[in-house]
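Lab manual, section 2.4: Encoding a predicted structure.

Procedure: take the sequence of the chain (657 residues), apply the prediction step described in section 2.3, and record the output as structure tokens. A sample record is shown.
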Amino acid sequence: MRYISSVKHDLFGLHLCMGLLCLPLMLLGQQPQLQLSFIRQNNFTYSTRMGLKYQWQREKYQMEVRLNLDNIYNAGETGRSFVQFYLQTHIWQYRQLTPAWEAVSWLESDQFFNASSHRLSLYAGLRYKWKDYLSITPLLGYSLDYRSMIPDNGLSPALLVTARYAWPDGLQMETRGFARIKYINPRRQQNMHLSSIWSRNFGSFASLNLGLEAGNNQLDNYTLSKREQILADTFAVEQIISDTLAPFVSLRYQLLPQLEWESDNRLIFSRRQLDYLLSHIENDRLNDRSFDQLQVHTRQKLSFAHQKLSAYFLYEYQYLGRRYELENTTGQPSRLFQTARRREQQKDYFRNLNEFELALTYQLRPRHRLQLSAHNRYLRYDTPAEDNFDDHDQLNYGFAAEWQAAWSSKFTTQYKLLGSLRQYAFLLKERSQDNYTQRSLRLEFTYRWLPLPRLTLSGEQYIYVTYNVKDFEDRNRTDRSTRNLETTLEASYRAHAKLDMELTAYRKEIHVAYLNWQQFAETPLDTTRTYIIEQTNKWQIKSWKQHILFLDLGYKHFSQTRRFNTSMMSLQNILTPINLRKRNLQTGFQTGIRWVQRHPASMSLAIWWQFQYQDFHFQQISRFSSLSGNLTEAALREKTLNFRPFVQLRMNVFLQR
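Recorded output:
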């Protein structure tokens, strides 16, 4: 496979890192906590994710390993096909010297293979533990940083402090502080983070949490490649500096036996600054820039519960304000700098969001429950710049009614009705043509029935209607209506203790049409129908004391048909209006094997042996709805048939103590 060959070609560093990581695990003979998934998402895209967590302790030695791999591969891309390829590794080792002192080592690695950027740091130091309350770990390390084809390295001191204490009156404190600097000249990386949480319970009727999070991070990045810097006889560095301060407080209080109040409040002060350092090229220098940001979030909730009635009222407020600033670090003339500064400050904005929600639940009968809810959401987006016309308001209303009924122990139903109204209004005339109102209505019905002891039938049906109406007179046929109808039927039957049979049928139909809101009339524009039928047989082929092996066999069929009006270039090179039907079929057998541990662990491999078929059918019509000439009659008369197996591999392995 092309994916496998590309992995082999690009990943020598990954193989070396994985080998070094897995060697101590194999020597120790322990089973790590491993999660792995490989999925072929479509004809061109593959994704792989892996997470490894491992802790091992013996006498005076302890090791902790964390590894994360995330990649996305697109076989349709030319050149380097890995859209994302990231590997992160952390290995901590501790060796106890005395009851209070431990020797510590830390290996940290971040590798961005698709961007040819690699970071590797190795630290060693001592950890001092004072009882179970305080831990201080000074570290000295060496860092390698390969960026923009330039390898940098240097010393890196670090300090980790953790504190945890519980007072007799119930007050608890947990604090963690981390500081590190990498002197990878001519660049530097700095990370500082502080997190502190204080909490106390006042009996069963109240609790209080106070906390503070603060951070300062600096990352220097080259703005020129190695070749560009050699040609220009200079280096160019962009310093990205981020500062954050976030205090928070949360409270829970029992006002009455049936009434409880919850309050969550947070402030976040942040600043981000971009400084540009160059040595010679004054004409190409960029002005330093920054922005300050303030976020306010408060959430207040009142809950009531008494006999058959329960309810709650929720209010949330969020504020986000951001201001941009530009400094004249390049010595620009005043007129040019003021023009650039106004252009930067044009991005300033203030965002206010108010949300209200009310929900009621009433137990009509022991097996019948009624739920009602309503919400309101009001967003205001303001821009202080005179030449920024993005000022707008959003107003949302919504309601939901749900009735859950258990008619017997074998038959249950659920009805749900949802409606919403959304208004989007720009406040300035330059954007008034974008104003619209959206109305939605949704009806849901689900049921579950056990007609026989080993047979279960369930189904879902959704009807969803949306109307988008522009709020100005000359709509130019921009109003739209969308109608969705979805139906799902599922049947599962246990033939015997080691065989389960499942059947699923799914149908989805979407109609998009031009909408005449005054006359409430529709003109069909686009229709899509989708069918999925899947049958699976699950055999338990082997069982041990702690493990079970399953074999899955079945068949899956996918069909999608889309009809819409467009245009094509005929064989005589004449642009012709047509009604086009596009059909896609994907069908084939499914096989799979699964290993399940009675404790939470599993591995599975599934393959859909898929045949893909596509064809087109068109009819000439009298009126153009599109002047696109991308479709040709020769291409529309072609039929394609391909065989493309789709593979899914998943693994979850957990350490057994």
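Check your result against the sample. The chain has five helices and 30 strands.
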